[in-house]
Amino acid sequence: MKRIINIAILLLTVMAARAASFTVEAPRHVVEGNKFNVTFVLQGGEGSSFTPPEVSGAKLIYGPSVSHSYSSTWINGKSSSSSSEEYTMIYKATSSDKCHIGAASIVVGGKRMSTRAFTIDVVPSGSSQSQPSHQPRTPGAPTPYSDPMTQTADKEVSGKDLFVRIELSKPHVYEQQAVVCTIKLYTKYQVSQFMPTIQPSFDGFLIEEIPMQPVLNKVETVNGQQYMVAVLKKCILYPQQSGQLTITSGNYDVTVVQFDTYRSIFGTISNPVEKDLKVTSNKATVNILPLPEPKPASFTGAVGRFNVTTDLKPATGLKTYSAATYRYIISGTGNIKYIKAPEVKFPDQFDVYDPKTDAQVNDGAGDMSGKVVMDYTFIPQYAGEFEIPQGEFSYFDPDAGKYVTVTIPARHLTVAKGEGQPSNHYRLKNMDIRPIKDGDLGLKKFHSYIVDSWTYWLWFLLPLLALTALLLYYRKQLKERADVRRMRSKHASKVAQRRLKAARGFASRGDRGGFYAEMLSAMWGYMSDKLSIPVSELSKDNINAELEKYGIDEKLRKESMDLIDKCEFAQYAPELASDDMNAVLDEAAGVIDRLERVKRKLIVNS
């Protein structure tokens, strides 16, 4: 058996190595002093531990930059896909003869693969054989980057230099089948600012956005041109209807960096210049196929591949009137987060509650995977032997193009007698037919008309009396509000309490100046409103005389005047005031409260 396993592993390794290819792409000749690209391409495999080549006659400027690409096709119901990895090195030719590029290597499927070594002819600068650095290269090799020094401010930035593209992972899918939407920025220029003004809309889709930070850290080749790429947005879309759905284009404000280059006695100097651009992305359309008919009765909208298990907590020892949980666990890959809870048929003797759902999913490269736990809480109301019958869960497999039904085995339950009695929820749920009432039903042989009853006419009289009372109360309120002095005296305490509350805020912040200013406003305002003294005539002597007129005892008058003196002193000499602000607040509230009680006593006795 061990020998068979080793042979199988060896065969798989050989097959993986044969399926993958590792090649190099580079120009045949370059000009001395110019930059050129060497790209190592891995097709049909996933590589690791990339080892750059040994190079002579050239200087490494940048690299390796790694880019990944993936493509898929769907023809006559059959799908095929391919992937590639590119490792790009940027060199500058330093020799005027030959540039030798050694072999690069990479590990694929546990086996190290290598490229061939090769030589590039280097043409001397100024020679009659000199050619520009963008000369033809070997097929498939990316065009070198534009040198930032050539990106002058007078050069127009075209749609081929910078654009935003919406890419979909699949051209057509079924309803509820995942399609990955990626919005990318392609640029040959440095980007200093990027701002979306109108985001693309995803009408007809449920969206699961994959968190990411846009960074220009990848290199891709489009139509033979090489670009720096940033993924602006990536999300998983789940179409909710069939037909053709379109993702609208978005608008973006982009600021790129160009250069003003001029010569001086110190050499060539380049100053960065920013240029503002408005960019509009493309639209993307996907064809949505309807789910086949007829749909199984147990289908609740699950699309993907799933497994289903059930569990019971507690597994044994069920008792009446004690809660238990029947757990439904759905795991797999697909629209797992949006699966509706399937219907479970519990015995009629159980009090059953709505299921609670807990989704534990991860956003993968092309779909969501994980599990959804659905807990059905139930309370047995009677002891005995019961059974949760066999059930079914159906989902649609888009790869196979058919529905798959999973059988959920029945579960036998033994319920022992517990303490308690059937719940009201259970009694009301099972009370479809009410008991027939017997005994004296209060039936009468004769009856009278309702208009002959005095209570019938009383219902007309009550609204009239209520309206009259409301009018009298309204007239009283108008009369009271017309007496301005009385209204100010009536609401003096409320106004003072609001000012004391504001003073408490100053005290909590340690602002003595604001605190004592608010305290003086509260005391002076209260005395003016309560004693009906105009502000122009407000003074300590007038306040003291008016308090004495109302029969306020000398002790309370003195406390009132002392409090005003204390606040005035603290306001104008805060550095000398040492009183606790909270104690002053309590003292003011106590003085106002006692003045209010004396006032009310005088009104009652009048």
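Above is the first protein from milestone M3; the second protein from the same milestone is given next.
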Amino acid sequence: MKNVKYLFATVILGLGLSSCGDSFLTQYPEGGVLLEEQYQKLPDKLQGALLGIYSQLYAFGGDHDTFGQRSIDMYTDIQSGDMAMKKSNYGWFEPYERGNFYSYCRGYLWSYYYDIINLANLCDKALILDVDSAGVSMDKKVLSIMSEGAVPDDKTALNGYCYGQALAIRGWAYAGLLNYYCEARDAETVDFDVEALPIYVGKDIIADTLGAPLSTVGEVYDRVYEDLSEAIDLLDYYSTFVSRNSKLEIDADVARLILAYAMLNHGDRSYIVADGKNCYQIALEQAQTVIANGNYTLMTKSELYATGFSDVSAHNWMWGEDVTIENTTGLASFFGQVDIHTYSYAAAGDIKGIDSYLYDQIAATGWDARLGWFRSGSEKFPYCPDGKFYCPKTKDVTALSKVDRNWLCDNVFMRVELAYLIAAEAAFSNNDNATAISYLDDLCSERILDGKDTEYDTWKAGLATNDDVKNAIIYNWRVEMWGEGYSMQLLRRLEKKRVLGKNHLSRSDKELDVTGNEAELYQCQIPTSEVRYNPNIGRSTTELTNK
């Protein structure tokens, strides 16, 4: 026990430090990513830049609440209340539990996404500058070969496959920035002319652009759509000639769901995005294609409690990180923060559990087997995700002397279940409740408790009105994707208001509302440092930015 006390005493020393320091945008990535000079020395610049990009998804940011994408997933799920903290002995993630996402997170998120964008632009730059004897650049060559349906040589095939990944991750990063730095979208009307974010592409790095001006919401969404649409085509075509190395790499199906999710957050069904289709039609088509392709399949009822959501090889995992001794972030990791069977904060008492009111909703259905993903409020470690996120090797122990100390559970970034939820919501948003119910049924049919088919049939038969279907979609997003970073966008996009349970530090029984004065709590402002040092962004900022 001395070792435990010493460990956490050391951790506490860092609590006075901000997790989000100055992180204004630079054209060349700094710190934990490749510098321009380092990049130019790589034997294969394109693959080197891609490795740098993917490493950012799990990079340790210096504090025990900054460890890449899974820490961001936690920020947003805690801020929106689905992930609840009743106690915080060590302080990590406490600001988000108290509803301060907007002020604590804006610098980290900004640098996180723009570092990824910068690295993607290094790939873009490499292809633009790789010119053959006929004066044709590699980016144009891979697109030309694809359009002709020709067979590429090995180098061109690899470049085409890498280019697709770079465009996909860049589109994903811009979509992520829109989620956090723009006001919540509305299904009916959206102001796409509001200034939002600076846009950078490969040619900007070549021209050494010193800070781009703000583009509008509509222009950034156009960039997202263009990057991801082209990425899907490239990955579909060149995957015939180049094999995926691991699930850390984005494939065509992952790119499709990135685009589908971005279009779901886009809003405004009257706005034609492309090919005469609105955002929800595009989202539905992309999700349907992923499901039809059959490369990934739903987790079955028999597997609900069997995996701990800890193994990237699972047939329903589309995108994720194989955590190894070389890349683990140890205590500062998702499982370190959430799993009571892993030696770190949750096991020592800083429980992150499901909101008690949401837990009661699951129990009230009478049929939902996902209730078993969580402990009840009357058990030790109340409401923790004991049946969803856990280390399988130490599943039966919680004593600090016996829990896992290797921190090798894998990180999930995308599961195929996302496709069914996107398809259901996209159909609903286009006034097609029958299709929405069909996709919900596909998912929920694998979530029924043994002997509770009658209760499930009653629940499904009750989806008679628009509000019934909407509430069912909201419910399944919150339950199925708990702890995976989708809760806050759901609140901003579809739900708008949410009542929290009693297991929160300071927000017990509180109603969250993104439609009124609290809207700013769910939207980051551009960091003050960016406003100061980017000469193309006006100095007039909001009161929040000036804080």
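Note on the second protein: The first strand starts at residue 83 and ends at 85.
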